[in-house]
């Protein structure tokens, strides 16, 4: 399985990137909006300020123009010129100009000077000046008057200037008093020219009315530019600012901004919440991806049924120990236990996979509960478990615990199952770990633990490895021998208990010409079973035995059948085919089955036995008394014959109870109408006992060793000899 490390990491980065881009885009958008609003506000403020400044400047200009208009009207006047050049000039001036200065809204001060600058009349607010106008207005007064006297008539500028008088700021203008029309009668003499000067003070009421008519609120006069206010300068004769009209900006943009500010704040808040949401969603997505990654990794390294580590995790763990475990000076031992359960297949086959799963899960739980903390437990599949211990004080101590924890009675629902198992165990110091070697060593040890009869712990040592290799070599030779039909068959006679005459033979496989020398069936039969060669071997024996014994009519033939062969559903068909091919009478054939198959695969055994019996073949329970097969099994599986194991016979001379047990066994079988063969009879005593107890067929060296076909023929079926029994060993 490939971990999705790379993929999820890339997706995580993409999610982060999208979230960051969103937040960035949102922030930029917000900044642009705020910047624009600010620019709109500033622009609106500036435009309004400019308008107000223009309006104020225009107001000032209008005031000056108005003042100049009055000045011009009064100074350019035939009557004025004429009266000023008369004796009653002063009264005329007072009558016409100064008196009005008291109530006139357009000017408040009137000064008339002669050609040499001497003041003729000077009034302010209808009251005569007590001081000279030059003192009242300052030096600019003389300059303004002087400028008026030099003015040509068509100067376009308005000659009204700002002057700071003792009464405040005033707009002041001067003009020579001249006749409006060229008078024919009088020649205009320079010395007859008087100058009229009028002034208007920008008093608060004046400023107020200016403010109202030009809609500029807060307008006031000041003598310096006012910071923070809008200013329009009022300039003197030389163009220098004398004073300022100042007023606060209306800041319409700011006011507009104030009105939309709350909306903007709400908008900004929404945006912030939105972006925060995106950020949060991004974080959640990233966390989810991280969790996915973690659970994918968990799934990749764990067994889903038990929650234990799996094979891949075991490999990673060992690799990790090899890399880091050796750092403590190589002191730490790495131990590997392999546990293989018995009976799991049986539970699976007879009670279904759910029960099998429950069994495995229960054993897993027991291992977890029964082993010390820090021990690494993995399920490798099926009923195989693996336990790694790092740094145990005494190697092998945990291996016993593993077996103890896993085996015993397990309750599945109402059922009780006796769980057994084998443990193979190997260890190596951490700095010399080779994972492949360690796994192989533990595996070899497990193999031998099973071989020794289960329920055992075997620790690997080098010799085991050699046995294993020898076995593999043997397998190869056996395979080759079977290809060449090189397995031979010997026939051991079976004799009637009453007449001691041959009534049949048991076919026994022999492997005499192996490159490894003669190998007994006790060795090569299990090898064939494990290597998957037993089906072929069994059929070869059966075929040859039928071919060789078939011609001796009425002689029964017993052939051994391995439990493994019975698992082949087509076994009965194959037997039938061989008999048919040789025209062999099925009633002459007895197949001998050992108890193992009954315990491990009872249902299969029942079916196979039924199929064989349907062919007319007899079935015998072999090796009875050497294991756990019960009398009950005889009936349950409908055996035709019972073969009492030679170990029971061998006990007769040694153990007093052996006789009664043998007797009871034969009696029980006979009571169920099941015939009994006693094998391994070596002495007359044994033969007599067996006969006495009621068995009908005897087998053993007392009568004959297993013989070749030729020996058998010569001894029992040869033409000159009558079919009679000869004592073996003679
Ligand atoms: P088994 O089926 O119990 O066969 C009887 C064994 O007892 C034979 O050993 C036989 O030589 C031996 N025997 C016979 N009489 C005596 C006696 O008086 N004293 C002693 N001590 N032994 C006696 P063998 O031929 O070495 O076979 C051993 C086992 O190998 C057989 O035990 C059988 O289980 C298995 N076997 C042999 N041939 C075949 C075969 O073709 N197929 C299968 N599946 N198993 C076979
Ligand atoms: Ca047998
Ligand atoms: Ca036997």
Report on this model:
This protein is α/β, with parallel strands linked by helices. The protein is 50% helix and 20% strand. It has 25 helices and 23 strands. The chain has an 8-stranded mixed barrel with strand order 16-17-18-19-20-21-22-23, surrounded by 5 helices. Strands 3-2-1-6-5-4 form a 6-stranded antiparallel sheet. Strands 10, 11, 12, 13, 14 and 15 form a 6-stranded mixed sheet that branches. Helix 24 links the parallel strand 22 and strand 23. It is rod-shaped and about 200 Å long. 32% of the residues are buried. The model is unreliable at 721-730 (pLDDT under 50). The site of one calcium ion has 4 residues, from loops.
- Neighbour order of strands in the largest sheet: 16-17-18-19-20-21-22-23
Bound molecules: ligand C2E, calcium ion
* Alpha carbon gap, first and last residue: 69 Å
Number of helices: 25
The portion of residues forming beta strands comes to 15-25%
Give the overall form. Answer: rod-shaped
Gyration radius (Cα, Å) is 65 Å
Compute the number of strand runs: 23
Proportion of helical residues: 40-55%
Largest sheet: 8 strands, mixed, barrel
Low-confidence stretches: 721-730
**What class, by secondary structure content?**
alpha/beta
Average pLDDT figure: 87
């Amino acid at each position: 399985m490939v971990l999705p490390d790379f993929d999820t990491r890339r997706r995580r980065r993409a999610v982060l990137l999208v979230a960051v881009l969103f937040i960035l885009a949102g922030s930029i958008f917000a900044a642009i909006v705020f910047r624009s609003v600010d620019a709109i506000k500033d622009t609106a403020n500036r435009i309004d300020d400019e308008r107000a400044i223009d309006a104020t400047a225009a107001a000032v200009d209008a005031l000056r123009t108005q003042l100049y208009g009055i000045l011009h009207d009064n100074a350019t006047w035939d009557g004025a010129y004429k009266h000023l050049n008369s004796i009653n000039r002063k009264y005329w001036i007072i009558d016409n100009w100064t008196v009005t200065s008291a109530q006139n809204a357009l000017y408040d001060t009137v000064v008339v000077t002669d050609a040499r600058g001497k003041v003729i009349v000077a009034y302010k607010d209808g009251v005569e000046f007590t001081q000279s106008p030059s003192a009242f207005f300052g030096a600019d007064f003389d300059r303004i008057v002087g400028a008026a006297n030099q003015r040509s008539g068509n100067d376009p500028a308005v000659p009204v200037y700002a002057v700071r008088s003792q009464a405040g700021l005033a707009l002041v203008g001067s003009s020579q008093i001249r006749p409006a029309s060229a008078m024919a009668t009088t020649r205009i003499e320079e010395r007859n020219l008087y100058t009229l000067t009028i002034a208007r003070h920008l008093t608060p009421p004046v400023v107020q009315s200016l403010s109202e008519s030009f809609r500029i609120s807060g307008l006031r006069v000041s003598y310096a530019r006012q910071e923070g206010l809008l200013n329009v300068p009022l300039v003197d004769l030389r163009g220098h600012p004398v004073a300022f009209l100042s007023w606060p900006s209306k800041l319409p943009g700011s006011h507009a901004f104030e009105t939309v500010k709350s909306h903007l704040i709400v908008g900004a808040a929404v945006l912030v919440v939105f972006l925060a949401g995106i950020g949060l969603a991004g974080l959640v997505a990233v966390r989810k991806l991280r969790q996915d990654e973690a659970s994918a990794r968990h799934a990749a390294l764990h067994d889903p049924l038990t929650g234990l580590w799996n094979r891949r995790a075991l490999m990673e763990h060992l690799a990790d120990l090899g890399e880091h475990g050796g750092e403590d000076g190589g002191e730490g031992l790495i131990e590997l236990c392999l546990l293989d359960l018995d009976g799991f297949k049986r539970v699976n086959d007879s009670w279904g996979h759910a029960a099998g799963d429950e069994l495995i899960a229960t054993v897993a739980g027991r291992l977890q509960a029964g082993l010390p903390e820090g021990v690494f437990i993995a399920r490798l599949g099926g009923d195989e478990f693996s336990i790694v211990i790092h740094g145990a004080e005494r190697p092998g101590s945990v291996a016993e615990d593993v077996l103890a924890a896993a085996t015993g009675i397990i309750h599945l629902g109402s059922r009780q199952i006796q769980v057994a198992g084998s443990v193979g165990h190997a260890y190596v110091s951490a700095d010399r770990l080779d994972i492949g070697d360690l796994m192989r060593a533990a595996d070899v040890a497990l193999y031998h633990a099973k071989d020794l009869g289960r329920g055992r712990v075997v620790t690997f040592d080098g010799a085991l490895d050699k046995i294993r290799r020898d076995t593999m070599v043997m397998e190869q030779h056996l395979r080759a021998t079977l290809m060449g039909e090189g397995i031979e068959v010997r026939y051991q006679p079976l004799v009637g208990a009453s007449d001691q005459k041959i009534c049949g033979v048991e076919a026994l496989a022999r492997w005499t010409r192996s490159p490894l020398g003669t190998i007994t069936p006790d060795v090569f039969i299990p090898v064939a079973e494990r290597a998957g060669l037993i089906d072929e071997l069994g059929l070869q024996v059966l075929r040859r035995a039928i071919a060789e014994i078939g011609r001796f009519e009425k002689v029964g033939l017993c052939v051994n059948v391995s439990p493994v062969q019975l698992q082949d559903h087509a076994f009965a068909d194959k037997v039938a085919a061989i008999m048919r091919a040789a025209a062999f009478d099925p009633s002459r054939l007895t197949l001998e089955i050992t108890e193992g198959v009954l315990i491990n695969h009872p249902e299969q055994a029942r079916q196979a036995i039924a199929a064989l019996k349907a062919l007319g073949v007899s079935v015998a329970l072999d090796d009875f008394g050497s294991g756990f097969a019960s009398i009950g099994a005889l009936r349950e599986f409908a055996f035709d014959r019972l073969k009492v194991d030679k170990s029971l016979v061998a006990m007769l001379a040694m153990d007093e109870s052996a006789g009664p047990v043998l007797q009871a066994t034969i009696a029980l079988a006979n009571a169920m109408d099941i015939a009994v063969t006693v094998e391994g009879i070596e002495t007359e005593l044994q033969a007599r006992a067996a006969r006495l107890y009621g068995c009908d067929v005897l087998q053993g060296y007392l009568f004959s060793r297993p013989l070749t076909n030729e020996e058998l023929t010569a001894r029992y079926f040869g033409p000159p000899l009558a079919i009679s029994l000869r004592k073996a060993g003679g």
